[in-house]
Amino acid sequence: MSEVSDITGSQSVDRALKLLSLVGRSSEEGMSLNEIVSRSGFNKATTRRLLLALMRAKMVDQDEIERRYYLGEEAYVLGSFAAPRFGLLEMSMESLIRISRQTGDASFLSIRRDTHSICLHREEGTYPIRTHALLKGFEHPLGIGAGSLAMLATLDDAEVNEVLARNADELATDFAEVPVTDVRAALNRTRMKGYAVNPGMIFANSWGIGVALSFPDGRLAGAISLAAIDSRVQEPRQSELASILREEAARIECKLARMIDRERADKRPKARNAAPQRLAGRRASL
Predict the structure, then answer these.
(1) Looking at the domain assignment, is residue 40 inside a domain?
(2) What is the rounded CA–CA span in Å between residue 208 and residue 210?
(3) pLDDT at 175 over 70
């Protein structure tokens, strides 16, 4: 590669990162193409080309109606990995540690990534026989695995059908042992019980239990789950494990609610200071 080509490639990367930073700092309102062009100083053709590259990488997303640009799902996933002390992962760590210490089994935090679930963290337990069906960074179609199934169960039927349709080829190819009819049956059981059970969907001796996490407005935030060998996830222990997960899920959701309350308070306009009392008294005497 020539020096000129290398410089040109580096400039493209620098420009793309500048656009990503601009969009990221306007994540709530989003930005129009004209706004990005104006603030970046790039021409419209270059801006559009770089935005399309960022969209292909899922770092940027575009609203289909308003055509405004927002941070994409991959930006969120990478941010979660890069900044483990902040956000949902930070709020969940104490609970994951507590779950694994109390049960002896591995616990997990997962989030939704479009039609899939991705594991952000695995906390090891103390039980000597472990299952390694799920590790940090592993990605599964929604509905495959306990945490993934718990998240799928929170979606309405129309969205569930869309997710399963989009994942149909992958399910048939990579998870042929789990027919869609089994996923739907597990989904119905999850909704009835309030927690998901993975009865060895991927590996026969690896079972799991999962509970979804929600933001205060009901939006899906993620899921916590645990996995163990099949003999450790049978009744009555299954119900006990589900209770532990629910209790920790409630703790995490309380932290999420407090965080959102703080953010809202920070964004409220500050009340103007009241006029000095002596001025108010002076006006009254006029």
Answers:
(1) yes
(2) 7
(3) yes
